[in-house]
Amino acid sequence: VTDVPYLDLPPDYDDKTISTLKMNDADVSSNSSVNVSSKGLQAGCHGHCMLADMCRGHDYCVIGGYMIVPGQDVAGMESINGGSAGSFDHLMQAARAQCGSTSCVLVTNPVGFRTQDQLHIHFRNYNGGGAAMKSRLEKALCGTSGWRPFS
Description:
There is one protein chain. This protein is an alpha/beta fold and 151 residues long. The chain has one domain. The chain has helices at residues 50-55, 89-98, 128-141, and strands at 6-8, 22-23, 33-35, 41-42, 60-63, 67-70, 104-107, 121-125. The strands form two sheets. The protein has a six-stranded mixed beta sheet. It has a two-stranded antiparallel sheet with strand order 2-4.
């Protein structure tokens, strides 16, 4: 994919208080880094669709240096099913390419635990606590099948 904008969130962006922001026609060029400010936003979106509006018209965007956002409207992980899962593979691959080490984790937020009504994939390298959890999970679950208790 050659048309991948790298966008920054507005400096005053706060996903806990954002309520009536909407992107206007921002000048976004391919493979460029763009700072979006509150001046580039206008009333109408109610905040929950800001990421969707920022990336609209592109296959996907890298926003804030830590998430992949599809350029089409996709409410969230609940929009993915057995019939559509393959069409989202490239988004997971794009997220993995942003942090490709063995300590990279890809995370989506479920309904009720997010501020955006737009699928977005967070990519991060886990910390020491994440490494310890991974080790515990591997010891408890590798080589098994089905549901297993874990604490």
